[in-house]
Here is the input.
Amino acid sequence: MSLIKRFKTALAALKEEPKDPIERWLMGLPVIRALSKTGLEIGEDDAIKIMAVYACIRVIASEIAASPVQFLKNTQGGKERVSGRLAALLRYEPNPEMTASDFKKTMTLNLELWGNAYAEIVRNRAGEVTSLWPIPAWRVNKKRDDKKSLYYTVAVEGGEAVRLKEGQMLHLRAMGSGVTGMSFVALARDALGLAISAEEYGSRFFQNGALASGIATYPGKLSQTALDNFKKTFKESYEGLTNAQRVMFLEEDMKFQQLTIPNDAAQFMETRTFQMHEVCRFFGVPPHKIAILDRATFSNIEHQSMEFDQQCIYPRIIQWEEELRRSLLTKDEKEAGYFFKFNLNSRWRVALATKTNYYTSMRQNGILNANEIRELEDMNPIPAECGGDDYLINGNMIPITAASQQKAPDQKGESE
Here is the structure.
């Protein structure tokens, strides 16, 4: 076979998506596509093209990526940071090709879209973790062997499957069986199908000049030549976005009757907005986080941001911390008190003044002591003998019943 013929054959193969799962793996295509009630087959590649889906995943991934991971150890005096290879791995560079921020974004994308995120754990001969390499979720399949032990099969180039033990994989999973998570596309296929259909409808609406269908009537009889000329002239003059809203001129008593439902009557924009809210509801992201501000007010947007931290980001952070501890630490390290913790304070650097006022108020009113505040800030406690556990109150504040029993101070400064 000549070189040119080989090139043409390869080009023809790229024009249509293969049906074989291995070939789809090698070309970076989703293996399974879910059929929605709109009749559209939805895959992960279709879902990520929906702007609301991309925006929600981007917001979640950015929040997690902005929170550095700390390697800590519980001690009698509190907690202390641990330095070394593993700490630097998660804080700066999980592998030679990625930063920690890129690694967390990649894992979050796989987790939110496929329901599972995988990273191969590479160790040296001493058993120390040397690198973490994310693997596309659609390449991985988790199974049990005859002894009921879990293992992973990973599709690689050449159509082969590599088997990895459970201890060789960092696995984040969405809600599901506990072994694997459920796919976002499989669960939300109908909502995604409606969102894609609405977007396609809008594109075709404007492509046809907002005049998608109608009936042209002529009182007489047109020859085939006259009919062809009319079609050609009508298409060139009135179809397409650039010809939208132009005045239509008809000759010899010809009439045009529009059959398409008007865009506002079909509530096109309301449908698109509702589908964006549906996507936000699925991910737990407040609409204002992806620039949907129709229901946001100055009084409630702060509380919505707090709910986003507490109900969306914090549960995902806990999942990261628990899985890192489970997968990366040995049994002896776990028993010795080693653990991982995200430093969420880095996300709130712009709100230091607000936090300071809050802590000051709680401290001066005897609600929190110094060590409780330091615990919230991931700081080591002050020894109890130095007053770290003492509760303080403002000395000028007394019960109202005791105010009448106090004598007024001597105006001349004379002592009693």
In short: Confidence is low (pLDDT under 50) at residues 20-28. DSSP finds 15 helices and 13 strands in the chain. The two ends are 116 Å apart (CA to CA).
